[in-house]
Specification:
By secondary structure, the protein is of the alpha/beta class. It folds into two domains: 160 residues, Leucine Aminopeptidase, subunit E, domain 1 (3-Layer(aba) Sandwich); 308 residues, Zn peptidases (Aminopeptidase), CATH 3.40.630. Helices cover 35% and strands 20% of the residues. It is built from 15 helices and 19 strands. An eight-stranded mixed β-sheet has the order 7-8-10-9-13-17-14-15, sandwiched between helices. Strands 1-6-5-2-4-3 form a six-stranded mixed β-sheet, with helices on both faces. The chain has a three-stranded mixed β-sheet with strand order 11-12-16. The radius of gyration is 24 Å and the shape is elongated. The two termini are 31 Å apart.
């Protein structure tokens, strides 16, 4: 899709759909356009109180003519003093979906009153995000696909605006949107298609398209690295594991400052011998949501050419049942040398993550680490689908995450990491246990990973509640995967 920025007085084309962002303020209702049909339609709708400009309101007018614009859409933005970037994303997402319903090919977005209420650069970025994200739906395997008809969107701004600044903001918004869509597309793929090998190929293809380096390690190489915990989970499947390492080295002036991202890459999880009930297993194709998030984030980081050094690692595998599968009661090793008593084979993600964390610290020499994973059902019980649960060893690092979360409207919530919780994962016959009991499951799972971070500033993000859902969480999402974490990680890295 082509998203353009043009000043009102320089716009020479006419789109099929003319959209106007309007606020509740009465003075904003008296704007005039050269097209009298547009003016008359606005006046009629407002006089009859069919549109008030409230947040989330959308009103479509058929102008009953063949020439463009043939449709007028009024988009409510609420009170100007309460406007946020997320309000703009939601309003524009709703607008784009209406245009898709109308099968429109071109759209112009008029924002005549926006400049006096809000920062135009932030608004342009939010528009780029929303327009990109709202067009997606997962219909790969449907025979009656509905093609996306909308191909040109023009943002019209006032003559005082700097078009080049707004174009740059839209570009970043589109890159963020694309990273989100890459994440959603990967998570939505069924597990019979997206095996560990195919996930690795997806990362390689994304690296080629967006400009970051990808190295994939096979089973023998993983074993030679001493990644015993990761291999314990992986060995039960006929589909071999793949260790995926992605690199964007954008800051040659500070080679020792390397940001590490680790994503959980379980392309399917049966629970192993602690098998999940059928209802719980049906959606386990999403258990690589963390891996997808770091791949999506890397695409945006590389496309925007951030002056940062970033390495991302995914320990991709399946947790299956076979004669080779690990068992409850097994004692296994790890790349870090710590031993682990396996009390539950369905607590497998943390076993793959700890070896990936050790690898990224020792072999890639990262200076700080974020791991992101669909790790526990307990986080869904605690926070539902509204927020990402976070465990950390560094409050300043968490504060940076919280600021980034506000920018992209992906809520985070810090959980405590008291010593009492750490006691729950201390082993009886090994150094550690892979579960800490029935209570505080999200915290103890995070702290288990924390035992392997070697004092590096660290954040653990549990996205089990935010990764996917039957209903779209916002107006710019569709059902299924949300792309949770991709925009958040990019913004965190950018702001560091």
């Amino acid at each position: 899709m082509d998203i353009r920025v043009t000043k009102f007085n320089e716009y020479k084309e006419t789109a099929e759909v003319k959209a106007i962002l309007m606020f509740e303020s009465k003075e904003d209702f008296h704007m005039k356009f050269e097209d009298e049909a547009i003016n008359n339609a606005i006046s009629y709708v407002i006089e009859n109180k069919e549109f008030t400009g409230k947040k989330g309101e959308l009103y479509t007018v058929n102008l009953l003519r063949k020439e463009a614009p043939s449709k007028l859409i009024l988009v409510g933005a609420g009170k100007g003093e309460e406007l946020t970037a997320e309000t703009i994303r939601k309003s524009l997402g709703k607008l784009v979906k209406e245009c898709l319903r109308l099968k429109a090919t071109t759209l112009e977005i008029n924002v005549p009153a926006l400049r006096k209420h809000f920062d135009m650069e932030i608004a342009a970025k939010a528009i780029g995000e929303a327009v990109t994200m709202a067009t997606y739906t997962f219909d790969t395997y449907k025979s009656d696909k509905k093609p996306v008809t909308l191909n040109v969107v023009t943002l019209l701004c006032c003559s005082q605006c700097d078009v080049s600044i707004l174009e740059a903001a839209v570009k970043e918004g589109v890159a963020l949107g694309e990273g989100n869509l890459i994440t959603r597309a990967l998570v939505n793929e069924p597990a019979n298609i997206l095996t560990p090998a195919e996930l690795a190929k997806g990362a390689e293809k994304t690296g080629e398209d967006y400009g970051f380096e990808v190295k994939v390690y096979n089973k023998e190489e993983i074993i030679s690295l001493g990644m015993e915990a990761y291999m314990a989970v992986a060995k039960g499947s006929a589909n071999e594991p793949k260790l995926i390492v992605m690199r964007h080295m954008g800051d040659s002036e500070n080679p020792e400052e390397i940001f590490g991202l680790v994503g959980k890459g379980l392309t399917f999880d049966t629970g192993g011998y602690c098998i999940k009930p059928g209802q719980s297993m049906a959606n386990m194709k999403t258990d690589m949501g963390g891996a997808a998030a770091v791949i999506g984030a890397m695409s945006t980081i590389a496309k925007m050419k951030l002056k940062k050094n970033v390495v991302a690692v995914v320990a991709a595998c399946e947790n299956m049942i076979s004669g080779e599968a690990y068992r409850p009661g097994d004692i296994i090793g790890s790349m870090a040398g710590k031993t682990i008593e396996v009390l539950n084979t369905d607590a497998e993600g943390r076993l793959t993550l700890v070896d990936a964390v050790t690898y990224i610290i020792r072999n890639e020499k990262v200076s700080r680490v974020v791991d992101i994973a669909t790790l526990t059902g307990a986080v869904v019980t605690a926070l539902g689908s509204a927020a990402i649960g976070v465990v950390t060893n560094d409050d300043n690092f968490y504060n940076s995450l919280e600021e980034a979360s506000k920018e992209v409207a992906e809520k985070v919530w810090k959980l405590p990491s008291f010593d009492e919780y750490k006691e729950q994962i201390k082993g009886e016959v090994a150094d550690l246990k892979n579960i800490g009991g029935p209570r505080a499951g999200t915290i103890t799972a995070g702290l288990f990973i924390g035992e392997f971070v070697e004092s590096k500033p660290w954040l653990h993000l549990d996205i089990a509640g935010t990764c996917a859902g039957e209903k779209p969480p916002t107006e710019y999402h569709s059902s299924g995967a949300t792309g949770s974490g991709a925009r958040l990680l990019y913004t965190l890295v950018k702001n560091q």
